[in-house]
Design a protein that fits this description.
Elements (H helix, E strand, L loop, with lengths): L14 E7 L5 E7 L9 E7 L12 E4 L9 E4 L4 E8 L5 E8 L2 E5 L5 E3 L3 E8 L6 E7 L8 E8 L3 E5 L5 E11 L5 E6 L4 E4 L8 E3 L4 E3 L5 E3 L9 E8 L2 E7 L5 E2 L8 E11 L4 E3 L4 E5 L9 E3 L4 E3 L5 E4 L9 E8 L2 E7 L5 E3 L7 E10 L4 E3 L4 E5 L9 E3 L4 E3 L5 E4 L9 E8 L2 E7 L5 E3 L9 E11 L4 E3 L3 E5 L9 E3 L4 E3 L6 E3 L9 E8 L2 E7 L3 E2 L8 E11 L4 E3 L4 E5 L5 E2 L10 E2 L11 E7 L3 E8 L5 E10 L2 E7 L12 E8 L4 E8 L2
Parallel strand pairs: 9-16, 18-25, 27-34, 36-43, 45-52
Antiparallel strand pairs: 1-2, 2-3, 3-4, 5-6, 6-7, 8-10, 10-13, 11-12, 11-14, 14-15, 14-16, 17-19, 19-22, 20-21, 20-23, 23-24, 23-25, 26-28, 28-31, 29-30, 29-32, 32-33, 32-34, 35-37, 37-40, 38-39, 38-41, 41-42, 41-43, 44-46, 46-49, 47-48, 47-50, 50-51, 50-52, 53-58, 54-55, 55-58, 56-57, 56-59, ...
């Protein structure tokens, strides 16, 4: 360390300093000094500094030459014996050369300050004497930094330059040694002492404990040993040592460090270890414990996975995993770990356990394996990693198509249909049909979206609920909405025909047919149908009367009515009647020409009884009607309603209404209507 110190406090304007080492851990300085008032010329002074820069001689140095006249700055050369030779040019008499040796006559070489010794040990004191005849020395030490030296080391010891001192058992950092040189008569002729304090530390470092690996633990071949940091109340810690199997393994571990690895890998087996800590005085303290540690760098035995199988599907979000047991012949198994997608999902599985329920997994593919750990931290992964395919998502919901909700049917084995479902995971496995909460059809192929009930599962009359389930290959299911189907196998109640009466005759081709009202206690009546000559004439009749869809030809015709309920059950009228069409509705005239315009002639005879003839002309093909009305505008009868070609025509009215009854005497209107022509005239009937 660099330092600055005073070699003189003289007011004599010192100058021209020279310095050399003295060979004994110190140095000698000389300079020109003007302190003497008696001598206005230059004087020469000198001073010795110890290894710490402390002045050894009087504070202002010693005078080497104070003669009158002028002295040149001296040249100084070390003699390496704690002294130096000074040579200078001197003018006291004339211009002459002078020389002088300056030296330390007695010098304590060690301890000189800063040393640290352990108490109750032997340490050698060194000193040197120069230019004195000292046969004996007295040695003593101070514990108060050199203020006093009451403690005798040796008295009247032979001046050999060394003395082996048995240090006292004490703790102090304020120690110094004093040396007195004596001549043969026992007179003190020189003295020196330690330049600074040194230390005696008789106490070892503080107690401390080992930390890890804990006693009896297993580890790999390069374990990390750790311990509590110790402390030292005086000299301070110097180092730690690691001892393994009673042999020093690692030395000079920093006192600031409390962990270390062995110098080389340890062999497999059991080893003992402890730590020693040393203070600067060399006092040592061993850890309070000596631990054993087992070394194992062999991984556990190989083992295989058992289930789930590789690339197998599961619908369980938290499936169970199973594997073969591993083993470890050295430190023994400590645990298993379940690793999924590269992450330890479950740790610290007991070494006696070979199955574990995993965490909840998302519906997708996952990679899994098992890792076996021994007590030394060695690991072994299962011989393989497997893929587990999780599908906990149901197929898309089936959409029902038919029968429509609350629809009626008379089919006791109806066909059910739905839209196809989709399953993006394990794939669709089957459909199931449920009726009234009961499974009626299982294992319906996924390519099929219809199902007809077999005869063994006929539906009874009444309401039934039904739905479809879509089932994937892992039995995840989705259910359609619930629908109701209504079954009615009973036809409407019996009903009768009313008119025209059976085997009656009418003189016009479009009579009105009437019948009694039919009823249906289940699904309810939907409509009627009029059948003439075993052919459907009019459908979707909502009332109980209807004319035929086309005029009937002259002659006899059979007719009946069908009542149809909302489930399509049918009931024919209780009768099947006959009606006769006795007159021709319209005749052509004998004229050979084609009329050029529409024309309606006056009937003849008029008045009439019992019948009259009405003539009319049609200039082009058209659909015409001829109807008879009373004076209140009420329709009495339709005489003609059909498509006619261009010609002259006549039609006969027998004086009867649409029901074949004779009309009373009076005035009536008859009207001809075509596509773009209407004409009306009056006629009279007299009874």
């Amino acid at each position: 360390m660099d330092c600055c110190c005073h070699t003189t406090t003289s007011f004599g304007a010192p100058e021209e300093p020279r310095i050399v080492i003295d060979g004994w851990a110190g140095c000698l300085i000389t300079w020109i000094d003007h302190r003497s008032t008696a001598n206005i010329d230059d004087d020469i002074y000198a001073q010795r500094l110890d290894a710490f820069g402390n002045p050894e001689w009087t504070l202002n140095g010693i005078a080497v030459c104070t003669a009158n006249s002028y002295q040149q700055p001296p040249i100084i050369v070390s003699d390496m014996e704690a002294g130096a030779i000074l040579v200078w040019e001197d003018w006291r008499f004339n211009r002459d050369i002078y020389a002088q040796r300056v030296a330390q006559d007695l010098l304590v070489v060690s301890p000189t300050g800063g040393e640290v010794f352990a108490g109750s040990t032997t340490q050698r004191i060194h000193w040197a004497s120069f230019g004195i005849s000292a046969n004996l020395v007295d040695l003593s030490y101070s514990t108060d930094g050199g203020a006093t030296f009451p403690n005798i080391i040796a008295s009247g010891a032979v001046n050999l330059g060394t003395y082996d001192w048995s240090l006292p058992n004490l703790n102090s950092n304020m120690l110094r040694v004093r040396l007195l040189a004596k001549d043969g008569a026992g007179n003190s002729i020189a003295e020196d002492r330690s330049n600074a304090n040194f230390m005696i530390d008789s106490s070892p470092p503080n107690n401390f404990s080992l930390l890890s690996p804990p006693n009896g633990a297993w580890t790999d071949s390069l374990p990390h040993f750790s311990w509590q940091l110790s402390g030292d109340n005086l000299s301070g810690l110097a180092k730690h040592q690691l001892w393994i199997d009673q042999q020093l393994n690692l030395d000079d571990i920093s006192p600031l460090t409390n962990s270390a690895q062995p110098a080389a890998p340890l062999t497999i087996g059991i080893h003992t270890w402890f730590v020693k800590t040393f203070d600067r005085a060399g006092n040592s303290r061993q850890s309070q414990q000596s631990f054993s540690v087992g070394v194992d760098n062999i991984a556990p035995a190989a083992f295989n996975l058992i289930s789930p199988p590789d690339s197998g599907w599961t619908s369980v979000a938290a499936p169970a995993f199973n594997w073969q047991a591993s083993s470890d012949g050295e430190s023994g198994l400590s645990k298993y770990q379940l690793v999924i997608d590269g992450i330890v999902m479950i740790d610290n599985i007991s070494p006696s356990q070979t199955t574990i329920t995993g965490p909840s997994l998302s519906s997708q593919d996952h990679i899994w394996k098992i890792v076996a750990n021994d007590n030394a931290g060695n690991t072994r992964s299962s011989n393989e990693s497997r893929v587990i395919r999780v599908d906990a998502v149901a197929p898309s919901q089936p959409i029902l198509l038919s029968p429509a909700n609350n629809a009626w049917t008379n089919d006791q084995t109806p066909e059910f249909s739905w839209q196809a479902s989709i399953d993006a995971g394990s794939g669709l496995g089957k459909y199931q049909l449920y009726i009234d909460g009961m499974l009626k059809a299982d294992n319906i192929p996924t390519s099929q979206t219809t199902f007809i009930l077999p005869s063994a599962s006929i539906l009874t009359d009444g309401n039934h609920t039904w739905f479809v389930k879509a089932v994937d290959r892992l039995n995840n299911t989705s259910q359609s909405a619930l629908r109701t189907i209504r079954v009615d196998t009973q036809p409407p109640n019996a009903f009768s025909l009313i008119s025209p009466a059976d085997n009656s005759n009418v003189s016009f081709p479009t009579p009105n047919f009437t019948w009694a009202l039919a009823t249906d206690a289940a699904s309810g009546l939907s409509h009627y149908q009029l059948w003439i000559d075993d052919s459907l004439s009019v459908d979707n009749i909502q009332g109980t009367t209807s004319a035929p869809s086309l005029p009937l030809s002259m002659g006899y015709h059979t007719w009946f009515v069908k009542a149809i309920d909302r489930a399509s059950n049918e009931r024919n009228s209780s009768e099947n009647w006959s009606v006769g069409i006795l007159v021709t509705n319209v005749e052509t005239n004998d004229k050979q020409t084609i009329p050029t315009q529409f024309d309606l002639s006056q009937n003849y005879p008029n008045p009439f009884n019992p019948e009259t003839v009405i003539e009319f002309a049609i200039p082009k093909p058209t659909y015409v009607t001829i109807k008879v009305f009373n004076l209140r505008g009420q329709e009495i009868r339709t005489l003609e309603s059909e498509l006619l070609q261009a010609d002259y025509y006549k039609v006969t009215w027998d004086g009867r209404d649409s029901n074949g009854r004779l009309v009373p005497s009076g005035v009536y209107l008859y009207r001809l209507q075509g596509a773009d022509f209407v004409a009306t005239k009056k006629l009279a009937i007299i009874r």
